[in-house]
């Protein structure tokens, strides 16, 4: 049975399951417009999730065939997974920020082997042990999920109102979790007249009880490998996703919405307080990492020593890759702030506090 919540003022949410994932559900929002309902995110591409989505829309008094448009907060498969099926069923447009559309395009074009080769090279550069990399060098065991995501047909332009007849929904670019993540600000009086400015669909950017993953912006065309050392830096700017994320957090805090409608967990009122909590969390994490970097460490060694939700030797394979990417995004921030640097001549490259 679809779980439907009425948030009033022409906004409802459907709790769409994510199979085999501790996150549990994606909250797909249904926003009424003069041209028909518009979805914010769609959910994981799985038969049960699809049934939940379509049943939920029926329970809302509409149907998947009536969907006018699909607005995607970011390209991850728990948000964008079902967009293609919704478009097929309804003829709806799909809108996404250009930076995430570029990721979708790369994902569709790069063969799986190329992704595995990219991952293997990246892990080797991060100092991962050979036994961790070996499975990637062997033939890919199975296709990765979400390798053929739908190509959006509209750009979400930062700062602009989306073309939703009868509604005021403004795109706020919040890079960090992904390069093209957006929050969507519903610039309308809160239906319960809570103090603040409208409501904010926050995607994965601002969640009540989870710190979103901030890794590197994965890109198989990015062969800069090492983080910031001058001898490996090629043309183009080295990205700083954690720096982007912290800036985006402050931007969203300044909007002061009356209520946040996130893509997981549950709605909550005080965006500014949650932003402060997350800024403090990252600040103390960076301070903790600087203490670990009293001795030179590779990103892998740093990840092994960082605090996770369980001991390193009990972290499963895939999560270790995510953890290393998270360690790298923190290292990049510290290097950019001038608080850590690459050790000259180290291979794989190690980093030390300065
Ligand atoms: Zn995400
Ligand atoms: Zn998510």
Describe this structure in words.
- With 354 residues, the protein is α/β, with parallel strands linked by helices.
- It has one domain: Metallo-beta-lactamase, Chain A (4-Layer Sandwich), CATH 3.60.15.10.
- The chain has helices at 47-59, 77-80, 83-90, 98-109, 112-125, 130-137, 241-255, 271-292, 299-305, 317-336; strands at residues 4-6, 11-17, 25-31, 38-40, 69-71, 93-96, 154-155, 169-173, 182-186, 199-203, 259-262, 340-342, 351-353.
- The protein has a seven-stranded mixed sheet. A four-stranded mixed sheet has the order 8-9-10-11, with no helix packed on it.
- Helix 5 (112-125) runs antiparallel to helix 6, helix 7 runs antiparallel to helix 8 (271-292) and helix 9 packs across helix 10.
- The termini are far apart.
- Mean pLDDT is 91; it is low at 223-235.
- Bound molecules: zinc ion (ZN) (2 copies).
- One zinc ion (ZN) binds at residues 74, 76, 177, 204.
Comma- or semicolon-separated keywords:
354 residues, Metallo-beta-lactamase, Chain A, 10 helices, four-stranded mixed β-sheet, single chain, alpha/beta, seven-stranded mixed β-sheet
Write the layout of secondary structure elements.
Blueprint: E1 4-6, E2 11-17, E3 25-31, E4 38-40, H1 47-59, E5 69-71, H2 77-80, H3 83-90, E6 93-96, H4 98-109, H5 112-125, H6 130-137, E7 154-155, E8 169-173, E9 182-186, E10 199-203, H7 241-255, E11 259-262, H8 271-292, H9 299-305, H10 317-336, E12 340-342, E13 351-353
Parallel strand pairs: 4-5, 5-6, 6-7, 10-11
Antiparallel strand pairs: 1-2, 2-3, 3-4, 8-9, 9-10, 12-13
Helix pairs in contact: 5-6, 7-8, 9-10
One zinc ion binds next to loops.
